[in-house]
Amino acid sequence: MVRAQCPTSIRKFGFCGLLATLYAAKQPIPSSTAKFDAYLKEVKRILSLGKGKWGKDTRKSKGAISLPQTLELFAHYNTCAFEAARFKDAAAAPTLRQWLKAAPARSSYIVNTQKHAMFVEIGAVKAKWRLYDQGGAHTKESGFLERKGGYGRKKLVAVVTITYK
Question: What is the mean pLDDT of the chain?
Answer without folding.
Answer: 87
